[in-house]
Amino acid sequence: MTNEENYLAWVKDAHAMEKQAESMLEKMADRLEHYPDLKARIQQHIEETRQQQVMVQSVIDRFDTSSSTFKDTLGKLSAFGQAMGGMMADDEVVKGAISGYVFENLEIASYTSLIAAAEVVGDVEGARIFSQIREQEVAMADWSLKHLPDVTEQFLVRSAAPGVEAKK
Ligand code: MG
Ligand code: FE
Q: Which ligand approaches the C-alpha of residue 142 most closely?
């Protein structure tokens, strides 16, 4: 494969990853009732994730000459995406928060690799876009880790109180 072909395949993977991210984050935000800070931060990141999809698609549009290959790549990626999605499907808030942090770090690693690939193929605009997206992923990962103790403590307080729902 040429550098450009590998690069394009990875950018398409990133687009599918963001689709997966959107659906996982939406499920978690919809489910949460008693963790308003976490819910609000997830909702903010859903908006960012939708913008990321548009930005990633703009890179695909510049490099892709055939539109028919897109569906194939989406299908291939879904096994990887589904494994991650399965982790976040847990309906208990602490597990969901841990999995969310893991997923953000998957995104950070993916964009770090994509930035290097963009530089190899000379896609200055792509490298700029992926750096911008990576900053949002780093911010989300940092927030998730910083607030994980709070979420855990709130869960335990609720769980120990009779008749109080804890898991969402
Ligand atoms: Mg993302
Ligand atoms: Fe993210």
A: 2
69 — pLDDT class (breaks 50, 70, 90) = low
How far does residue 111's CA lie from ligand 2's centre (Å)? 11
> Domain locations in the chain?
3-160
Q: In angstroms, rounded to a whole number, what is the distance separating the alpha carbons of residues 114 and 27?
A: 27
Q: Say which CATH topology domain 3-160 has.
A: Ferritin (1.20.1260)
pTM: 0.89
Helix (H) or strand (E) holding 9: helix 3-31
CA of 104 to the centre of ligand 2 (A): 5
Cβ-count burial of 149 within 10 angstroms (0-12 exposed, 13-18 middle, 19+ buried)? exposed
